[in-house]
Amino acid sequence: MNKLIVATLVVFATALGSALFGQGGPDQDDRIRDKLDELQRYSDSVAAREIPFEEKRYFPFRKAPVEVAGVLRMWKRKGISISYPKYRTLIIYDDKGVLMRKVSKDGTVRERITDIESSNTIALLGAAFGFDQVRLHQIFSMTWEESEKGWKILMVPNDPEERKLESVSIFGDKLQIESIVLSFVDRKRIEILPQEEIPKNGFSGAEETKYFRGDSG
Amino acid sequence: MNRKLLTLPFYGLLSAAVVYLCFVDYSEKLEKDVSSILPQSESDAARIARQLIDEQQGRAVYLQIIGFTSDKDRGSQVEEAIDERLGKSSLIQSVVKIDPDTNVGALKAVGENRLELLFPKWFFDKRKQFEELEPRPDEFPDWAAKRAVEEMGAFLESPMAMELARPELLDPLLLGINALLVMDEQEPEGDSALSHSDSSRLYWLMLNESPFSPSTQESLQSLMSDLSSDVSSLDYRLEVRYGGLAKLAGASRERIQKDVYTINLISILGVLVVASLLAPNPWRLGWAIPSLLAGAVGAVTVSFLVFEQVNILVLIIGSILIGTTIDYSIHLIFRDHNTESFPTENLVLYACLSTVVGFSILLFAELALIRQIGVFVGSGLVVAFAMARLSIRPRERSNRATVKEAKSVKIPPLVLHCFAGVVMITGIAGLTQLDWKDDLRNLEAPDAELIREDVALREQFGEVESKSVFITTGSTYLDVFQSEFELFQLASGKGFGYSKFLPRRVQVNLLREYSREIPQFFVALKEAFASEGYDLDSFDPFFQSAATFQQDTGFGDAFFEDRIQELADSLVGPMSGALGKSNEMRWSLSSIGSGEDQSQSLARSSDKVTLFSKLSFLNQTLDRHREVLFRFGMIAMFSVAVVIVIVFGWRKGSLIVIYPILGGSAAIGICSLLFPSLNMFHLIGCFLGGAIALDYSLFSIESYARGLPIPRSVWISAGTTNASFLALTFSAIPVVQGLGAVVALLSCVTLLLLFSNQSVLRRIL
After folding, report:
1. Best residue in B104, B149, B151, B157 to probe A by mutation, most A CBs within 10 Å?
2. pLDDT by residue (tens digit) across A77-99?
């Protein structure tokens, strides 16, 4: 099993833990909690991780999905960064909020600070990967389904007025996340497929500057 | 002349004036708006700018309400209360709530006419790219259609695709989305309106009335406090912040009003202290009070009768009357009595007339404010002089028994000469560094903290202080955008304006030139999208309007002009006024983040472009008026000098004239060292002080010619005049400070030179 993906799941699952226990029977809850605790311990032992992922975007006006590649970087010290190398675009989530950074062809860096609540998608990622259970509960209602194929967590935003994002579904089998699907209004959908992890002990100074928020920002 | 014959009608008129002043409506007669003193300029850009200030930007109120929590129900309850309060206020013409979709909202109007408004640029850019290709493909329509499909693919892969690929924004050519991205680029980095925190709400309000009207300012203040109490009655803790010209002008008005009281108080106290120190029987100064009051009554009455409205600044500057009108009484009351009473009544009359001539030059100024000062002070002087002549009884004037002999001041001549030398050298040094610059903001009472808060608040609405705003004018929008686009090219593409995506003259011309290719292009586009797996039904409205686009428009100017005008009319909030028409002129506002010097040089690059930011063009108008005033002033002073030389003979006459000139030069020189730059009010002060100093010079030279010392009345007068002019330096308004300093310095230096040169002068005379 890909350990990093497991770790990612741990993060996610830990954040969701309390919601899960509310949905299932006592035996099921205990079983999941044990596994989550186990994975949580593993997660805590890793300081930084880098997960390349494939993203499939489905649009109502296009038959085939558009496929793009991205990299998710998590570092306890600095937060989370999602980069789309082809577009020189970076989304940083940390305890200061969300920062969008775009580097132009001529090297000009343009940054925009976004409040966490201004984008549910970013808020979701931030809250989920940032262990922010409280915020997750503020934003979403969560349900848990389990079948022979694996399990599914369905998250629906609480605020009906802000449902540009209709739902988030996380599909997994045992302790592995297989895909994350974000469904938007206007029949748009994103499917994220995590790939093989690139092991990291931490990030270099240059990587820190490139992928995370500066101290002043 | 029979004194009684004159006295009766004079008192009659004066009583009538007092009655008039008791019944006149001061709120109507007094103009408290500083900007109203600006000349009505002939230039189109200035006229449009003035219109924008009067009707658009000037009337905007920036409202921020901070402290919303994540409790959405409570939040909406509060928002409803705010909307209701703002909605029912008769003060507010319109309310625009600023949210992250503001740009999208502005684009709605663009989106509805996207082919007409955005296709010309797309076509122009593609045609240019096509022409640069080597080797060039045969058919432009096919090539362009393929490019469109590629660009759509690239967009859908980009991170903003999910957010922006909305039916109302998306079209096969990405016209709406590209326009949105151009608009979005103008937003400042960091915490802008597009990314504002959920804890605050921004409202852009438009006032119904002028922001300069005191009643508007007061109503706005009470509306804001009502808003605060509405919110707190809902048990919700929120902070209400607001800004805009109405608030700044209101604060400025309050400071000016306070200024009037403070300056007058300091001035009166100063005059009394100086008089009690210099005058032998200071209580006799009481005889000057009727003249002083009559001067004030005369000045206000004549100004009110001559002008429809008198600016409040005139009253502030009118405070100087306390110093100048009292002079005639002083000269008459505290005359020296040796072989004859000195100064003689005729000399005092000459003195008065020369001062009146000095003030009357102001009547030639184009600026209403300066003309008002001329009339106010000139009429005040004449009435005060007449009152002094009529009210101070002859026995009072010649009561030798009450007059003490003046003690001669014993200062070693060397010390005096050295001091005069230092003053003159300082003055000359200052003259080498003259820097004249007029700034409209110097006419107002600044409150640095309030302005800083206002700038910070406006930044929340996307207005950046460091950006220069330009007005581009032309007879059609197509031409306006062409000129504006050329301006951006000069600024290396920096800046934002509608010409970045709306049709320009060259684009529409090109569209006409290749109009035959356009139907073919849309057919090719449809085929290319279908073959790449796109669902054409989703783009049906676009292709339908594309089919009739050319037939409907004929690509005529009028068609594009009408669509742009519709867009201009639909702009709301901070964007309103960015495009518009006035008579036959169209304008567009653009902003460029350039420095002051670069902005000035950009503005000079074309006669279609005018710098609007920081009111610099209004300042240039003031500069121009200062130059005119200087010319008139010099002519008038020359005339006064000629008259004096004729009346007193060339030797005495030229000596009388030369001392105020020396004093004036030294005063201007010293002021150029004291103030960052000199402005029109220093110049006015120079003429004013020159007129006063001429009196001292006249009396002193005449005294020396008769073998007498400088009359005591001159010292008392100089003391009181200085006290009242120095009071002006306590004003919060920079130009008033400057005026006070110049007059005080000028009269002091002139008297110092006259006094230190007395032995030389006696020999010459």
Report:
1. B157
2. 887 888 888 877 787 877 776 77
Residue B20 · residue B301 · CB < 8 Å:
yes
Token reading at B248? 């700044």
State whether residue A61 sits within 8 Å of chain B by CB.
yes
pLDDT of residue B502: 92
First to last CA, chain A: 37
Could you give the residue ranges of the DSSP H alpha helices within B56-197?
72-88, 102-112, 114-132, 140-157, 161-164, 175-185
- Percent of chain A whose pLDDT exceeds 90: 6
Of B554, B557, B464, the closest CA to residue B505 belongs to B557
Report the gap between the CA of B536 and the closest CA in chain A (Å). 7
Distance CA B754, CA B702 (A): 12
Interface test with B, best of A56, A61, A106 (most B CBs within 10 A): A61
| Closest Cα in chain A, distance from residue B138 (Å) | 29
Question: What percentage of chain A reaches a pLDDT higher than 70?
Answer: 61
Shortest distance, CA A67 to any CA of chain B (angstroms)? 7
CA dist., res. A6 & res. A11, Å (int): 9
Asked if B190 lies within 8 A of A89 by C-beta distance, the reply is no
d(CA B86, CA B96): 11
Please answer yes or no on whether A111 and B189 come within 8 Å at the CB atom.
Answer: yes
Q: Is the Cβ of A163 closer than 8 Å to some Cβ of chain B?
A: no
CA distance linking residue B382 with residue B359, whole number of Å: 11
pTM listed for this prediction: 0.68
Within 8 A of B163 by CB-CB distance, chain A residues are 119
Residues of chain B predicted below pLDDT 50: 189-196, 397-407, 614
| Contact (CB, 8 A) for B639 and B633 | no
The minimal CB distance from A113 to the residues B156, B191, B539 is found for B191
Tokens representing B536 are 């054409």
Which residues, at least 6 apart from A155, have a Cβ–Cβ distance to it below 8 Å?
A124, A136, A140, A141, A142, A167, A168, A169, A170
Q: What is the 3-state secondary structure (H, E, C) of B271-301?
A: HHHHHHHHCCCHHHHHHHHHHHHHHHHHHHH
